[in-house]
Amino acid sequence: MNDHTVKAFDAEIGELRGLISQMGGLAEAAIVKAIKALQRSDLALAQQVRDEDKVIDAIEAEVERLAVRIMALRAPMAIDLREVVAALKIAGVVERIGDYAKNIAKRVPLIASDQRIEPLSVLPAMARMASGMVHDVLDAFAARDATAAITVCESDTALDDFYDSIFRTLVTHMVENPKTISQVAHLLFVAKNLERIGDHATNVAEMVYFAATGQQMAERERGGGLG
User: Fold this and answer.
1) Is the distance from CB of 206 to CB of 140 less than 8 angstroms?
2) How many structural domains comprise the chain?
3) For 89, which of 27, 80, 163, 198 is 20 to 30 Å away at the CA?
4) Does residue 226 belong to any structural domain of this protein?
5) Three-class SS state of 219
6) 221 in any annotated domain
7) Helices in 3-74 by DSSP H: which ranges?
């Protein structure tokens, strides 16, 4: 490549990273807003989360167009090609993370009640863990940091344990308070959505690791055990 081409390519890679960062920030904010709407029974905020999901979708489409253009015009190789491909895949995963936040927001009107459901108080902590994983993994992508990607994968075990604990708490509450079964069932879906966000952050971490190193992440580093 000549100097001009190299500068243009670097600018396009920078734009691609910027779009992924913007998507990630919006998805992270959507998780926070959705849980806040749930805590406050705030139907307007829940609707805002649903409306803003369209912005995430639009940025994903822009990432796809830019990535395809880079591959077609620049023919990137080695680490540059891996980064473009990773960005393309990551955009799809972040879009799905946004969908999980939207799904939580959709349940707000179904859970809203004058009667306080006590197990609801533990969900924000789980949401902070999930959104923190999204934040950290996108930082890892921006920095091409394979070590940070491994750390995100390792933290998914704690999120899974949190989900298991919340699941048991919610089921116990349903048994002891039959009148709340419908609402608590929706809370179970909310907790599952948060657990899936963590899984998707882990998927992104594996892509980041591959983009940075050219190697697949080892099972141990993904949090997998011997069983």
Assistant:
1) no
2) 1
3) 163
4) no
5) coil
6) no
7) 3-40, 43-74
Task: Specify whether the CB–CB gap between 110 and 186 falls below 8 A.
Answer: yes
SS3 3: helix
Output the furthest CA–CA distance in the chain (Å, rounded).
71
Q: Does residue 227 belong to any structural domain of this protein?
A: no
Residues contacting 197, CB < 8 A, separation 6+:
31, 97, 100, 101, 130, 131, 133, 134
Kindly state whether residue 51 falls inside one of the protein's structural domains: yes
pLDDT in tens, 155-204: 999 999 999 999 999 999 999 989 889 889 999 999 999 999 999 999 99
- For 197, the domain range is 3-213
Checking phi first, is residue 53 left (phi over 0); if not, alpha (psi -120 to 50) or beta? alpha
Amino acid at 119: P
Report, in angstroms and rounded to the nearest whole number, the Rg of the chain calculated over CA atoms. Answer: 19
CATH number of the domain bearing residue 165: 1.20.58.220
d(CA 30, CA 38): 12
> What DSSP designation does 66 have?
H
pTM of the model: 0.90
